Amino acid sequence: MIYYIKQSKGIKAMDQQLFALGLFVFGFTLLFIMPAAQHRSWKNIGSKPPAGDAVVMMMRFMGLFLLLVGFLIISGAINVESIIPKETSGQPR
After folding, report:
1. Reduced to 3 states, what is the DSSP secondary structure of residue 6?
2. Which one of 55, 59, 74, 86 counts the least CB within 10 Å of its CB?
3. pLDDT at 59
4. In sequence order, which ranges of 1-93 are alpha helices (DSSP H)?
5. Is 1 helix (H, G, I), strand (E, B) or coil?
6. Are the CB atoms for 25 and 57 separated by under 8 Å?
7. Highest mean pLDDT of the ranges 8-12, 69-73, 81-85
């Protein structure tokens, strides 16, 4: 990954959009698909672990957080290039 960033001279706008799209996909998975699979497996097993609801709540929170960050990157409120240190962005020292 660092080699790719050095070769491309920083993260361009298209790379930021692809990164945000990845956050959307992973956030959607954490928000909806994984909790549903957990509930289905608990139903098949016939029991639920003591901290099961807390785990599902954390999955949903992280999914919502990733969707929010992805939306902020797409809207331009967060510039990923400003977060990455200069040593890895391909800029001359």
Report:
1. helix
2. 86
3. 92
4. 2-7, 13-28, 34-45, 52-75, 80-83
5. coil
6. no
7. 69-73
Specify whether the CB–CB gap between 78 and 72 falls below 8 A: yes
pTM, to two decimals: 0.70
Is residue 74 helix, strand or coil? helix
Contact in structure between 83 and 20 (CB atoms under 8 Å): no
Rounded to whole angstroms, how far apart are CA atoms 33 and 25? 11
Using CB atoms within 10 A of its CB, is residue 42 exposed (0-12), middle (13-18) or buried (19+)?
A: middle
CA–CA distance, 34 with 52 (Å, rounded to integer): 12
Asked if residues 48 and 41 have their Cβ atoms less than 8 Å apart, the reply is no
